Amino acid sequence: MEKPADTRDTADTTAAAAVAKHSKDEASPSPTSTPAKKPRIGSSPRAGSSPAEVAASPGSAPFIADLNPDATIEADDAASDAGYESDSASRASTSICSTVRDYEFENNRRYHRFQEGRYQFPNDEPEQEREDMKHAMIVHLCQGKLHYAPLDHPQKILDVGTGTGIWAIDMGDEYPEADIQGIDLSPIQPQWVPPNVSFMVDDAEAEWLIPPQSLDYIHIRHMTSSIRDWPTLLSRAYRALKPGGWIELQELKFQVKCDDGTLREGNMIQNFYETMESALVHFNVDLLAMRHNKKNVTEAGFIDVTEIPFKIPIGTWPKDPRLKMVGLYNRSMIHDALYGVAARPFTRGLKWTLDELEVYLVDVRKELTDGSQHGYMPFNIVIGQKPS
């Protein structure tokens, strides 16, 4: 059977189609290529590397050379959106089994039915496309890396909150000898997946049925807006990992930051995040819980805990071509998220009407197109190892 194409290419194709509508009226220089898939050896931190070595080695951690956490991102005075090209192909593999196929509908969007109300955001096709765009954005930011934990021939990997399953599928290609399982409240993963990848509908905050000391690596990404009890989740992850196993948390911080003073007071994107934070309090979710990730991972018992900071621009204002592309992804991802992610929290939590929400979002969308403000969002990766 012919080897299927890397889903990172497919994700970029999906993301490119979604992003195109946000940049079609702006000048586009020559296409910026997306990161090519790298061979497993050398594409991730080497086995046996300590977190200090991971953070200090330019070869293993391009963020040190390319994106100093304390450095100001240089703005492009002639900023414009860049296009990109990518190939796509179908993936031949083994089918996934799932019996949880029921959904509920609200505000013209589709939501999960299993453990109804635990997750406040939609799971329909527009949201799945946005999630795949978010994956492409992070892979582009990390120059093709899927993880920063120094894995040594892992055999069992768990992806918590797998969403569309795209990260798990990419890891299946990266580590064909490993068994990779993704869990999520929504059965929205592909019907056909690689033979070493499987998905299960499950609640990550329920009691884990995974045997103790059975996993080599646990990956948690984009879950800060969903998890209510991080210490309990991390204690269960600790118990499920083998001695020497790794955990990795990759999370956006939903705040707008700026290094050069161009962000205006009353920025509506920041206002949107603050309003969302207030709405999610009604569901016992802390939108900024990621600021405690390093402390929580350490208190769960992990050692060699390392935090790796990034900056994700909002828009195409950076001069650096890679960050310009990342910013285009991010702006498009935020634009496409606004109504879908706000509808339920704002109407149920804050008791807004849909008309009030629509009027409010007009100004937020206008702010997204203002390239004179050089805002960015922090994105932090925390890795930790279970003692041997």
Automatic annotation (TrEMBL):
Protein name (record): Methyltransferase domain-containing protein
Compositional bias per record (Basic and acidic residues), positions renumbered to this chain: 1-11
MF term (GO), any: methyltransferase activity
Region of interest (Disordered), residue spans: 1-69
InterPro entries linked to this entry: SAM-dependent_MTases_sf
Domain of life: Eukaryota
Family listed: Belongs to the methyltransferase superfamily. LaeA methyltransferase family.
Gene3D superfamilies associated with the record: Vaccinia Virus protein VP39
